[in-house]
Amino acid sequence: MIDPTGVFCRPEGRFFLTGCAPVEDPAVDWDDFEPRYEEFEDIIWPTLAERSASFEAVKVINQWAGHYDFNRLDHNLVVGRHPEVRNFVFANGFSGHGLQQGPAAGRGVSELIIYDEYRSLDLREVGYERIVENRPFIEKAVI
What we know:
This protein is of the alpha+beta class. The chain has helices at residues 37-51, 98-115, 129-132, and strands spanning 8-12, 15-19, 78-81, 89-92.
């Protein structure tokens, strides 16, 4: 379930995994993995409880925090050759979409390496050039 506010909830075994985008996203140290416990109490739980009375009795079993890999231009992946360093190929910045987009990116990168072009999937729109040219590739269905 994805609430219009961005709060999401999905089954995870016999429990549920919930989350939301942070209210503020400050720069952190590379080893900072401290959860923001108040975000569940202040944002996530009230949103879930409003959507379904069944969530009113929900309790936190575990919390964790992780770093999110993205580019600052458009928060999307970067795939393809570097325009100046010919033997450098990007396949990064999946922003949590790695399982979804990784197979396609892998196929595209393998085609670039083998054939020096995309053959089955045209991934030029998510190439590094858009970063240099300040041409964002905007995703329309963001959660």
